[in-house]
């Protein structure tokens, strides 16, 4: 099974990884995991003043800060893990990655905002659910 793990380095990501790690009966170690992080894009106005190579390096650095500890945890757990990164709107890119790379399941940490909070602030989780045809397992 191909399992996509959207990660952002937050406590919700850490909880999601710990949950999977302590509940081997849920998913186990026999699957192929992809840790996927999305870095917020700089505004186009700011980005136009930067050399494209510098901007690419910035996005890679930001992504690597999130992905390094996830890779280390996956290695401790014995998971087959690869990583992927993008920059832009997180929900859209997560759903797109899942579709384009034939992922069987998305497992992601959820913040657990109230319904009112989600209406006002929006939510990456809600955005993924709205755009995705792949099953999504939310860990709170």
UniProtKB/TrEMBL annotation:
InterPro entries xref list: Rossmann-like_a/b/a_fold (IPR014729), Universal_stress_UspA (IPR006015), UspA (IPR006016)
Domain of life the protein comes from: Bacteria
Domain UspA as annotated: residue spans: 2-140
Family: Belongs to the universal stress protein A family.
Protein name per the record: Universal stress protein
Species of the source: Ramlibacter pinisoli
Source lineage: Bacteria, Pseudomonadati, Pseudomonadota, Betaproteobacteria, Burkholderiales
């Amino acid at each position: 099974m191909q399992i996509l793990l959207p990660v952002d380095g937050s406590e919700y990501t850490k909880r999601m990884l710990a949950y999977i790690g302590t509940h081997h009966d849920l998913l186990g170690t026999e699957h192929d995991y992809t840790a996927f992080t999305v870095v917020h894009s700089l505004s186009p106005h700011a980005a136009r003043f930067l050399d494209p190579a510098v901007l690419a390096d910035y996005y890679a650095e930001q992504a690597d800060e999130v992905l390094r500890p996830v890779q280390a945890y996956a290695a401790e757990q014995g998971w087959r893990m690869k990583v992927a990164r993008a920059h832009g709107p997180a929900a859209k890119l997560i759903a797109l990655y899942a579709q384009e790379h034939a992922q069987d399941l998305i497992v992601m940490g959820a913040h657990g905002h109230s319904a009112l909070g989600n209406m006002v602030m929006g939510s990456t989780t809600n955005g993924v659910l709205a755009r995705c045809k792949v099953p999504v397992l939310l860990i709170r």
